[in-house]
């Protein structure tokens, strides 16, 4: 599987609990924090759910 770099670019203040939990599950939590993860269907779904809060790049 390909790896993707996910970077949080917006705050999770005043966001629903499910979006906050998704950000935490991705290993994020602070603006400009990045993680490199495998691009599995589960990760793709999580990224899609919080796509307005993160930036995704090929790693």
From TrEMBL:
Residues 4-54 form the Large ribosomal subunit protein uL30-like ferredoxin-like fold domain. CDD domains: Ribosomal_L30. Transmembrane segments: none annotated. Pfam families: Ribosomal_L30 (PF00327). Keywords: Ribonucleoprotein, Ribosomal protein. One of its GO terms (biological process) is translation. GO terms for cellular component: cytosolic large ribosomal subunit. GO terms for molecular function: structural constituent of ribosome. HAMAP family: Ribosomal_uL30_B (MF_01371_B). Belongs to the universal ribosomal protein uL30 family. Part of the 50S ribosomal subunit. PANTHER family: LARGE RIBOSOMAL SUBUNIT PROTEIN UL30M, MITOCHONDRIAL RIBOSOMAL PROTEIN L30. This is Large ribosomal subunit protein uL30. The lineage of its organism: Bacteria, Pseudomonadati, Bacteroidota, Cytophagia, Cytophagales. The gene is rpmD.
């Amino acid at each position: 599987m390909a790896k993707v770099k996910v970077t949080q670019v917006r705050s999770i203040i005043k966001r629903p609990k499910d979006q906050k939990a998704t950000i935490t599950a991705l290993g994020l939590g602070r603006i400009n924090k990045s993680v490199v993860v495998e691009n599995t269907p589960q990760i793709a779904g999580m990224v899609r759910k919080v796509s307005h809060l993160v930036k995704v790049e090929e790693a």
